[in-house]
Automatic annotation (TrEMBL):
Matching InterPro entries: UBC, UBQ-conjugating_AS, UBQ-conjugating_enzyme/RWD
Family: Belongs to the ubiquitin-conjugating enzyme family.
CDD domains in the record: UBCc_UBE2T (cd23805)
Ion transport listed as a keyword: no
Organism: Timema monikensis
Molecular functions (GO terms): ATP binding; transferase activity
Protein name: UBC core domain-containing protein
Residues annotated as catalytic: 46
Residue ranges of domain UBC core in the record: 1-112
Length: 117
């Protein structure tokens, strides 16, 4: 994602399509570690589109391409109001330069190694 701390990183996702798809959302997680307020250490992603109503917004008309675009948008613009990682969300809100520095370093450490895959 250009102009983000994740720029030039390669982030792998695991996508599991449930038997009831498209009536249930796919299960998606980051395999590549990422420093992000909406992604926990196991790669789980906090995104309403990945949850069924009433807590989420998943609809059977949503495509996998649209879901991946939403994950990219979340990566570029974190939602600190609904974090999985409260400490990172706080840093994002109150010390953005430190957040960007750590996210950039984390990306270099974990996401650059996947370029050759």
């Amino acid at each position: 994602m250009k102009d983000t701390p994740y720029e030039s990183g390669v982030f792998r996702l695991e996508i599991v399509i449930p038997d009831k798809y498209p009536f249930e959302p796919p299960h998606v997680r980051f395999v590549t570690p990422i420093y992000h307020p909406n992604v926990d250490e196991s790669g789980r992603i906090c995104l309403d589109m990945l949850k069924l109503p009433p807590k989420g917004t998943w609809r059977p008309v949503f495509s996998l391409a649209g879901l991946l675009t939403s994950i990219q948008l979340l990566q570029a613009t974190p939602n600190p109001d609904d974090p999985l990682m409260a400490d990172i969300a706080e840093e994002y809100l109150y010390n953005r330069s430190e957040f960007e520095k750590k996210a950039r370093e984390h990306t270099k450490q974990h996401a650059f190694q996947n370029v050759a895959c």
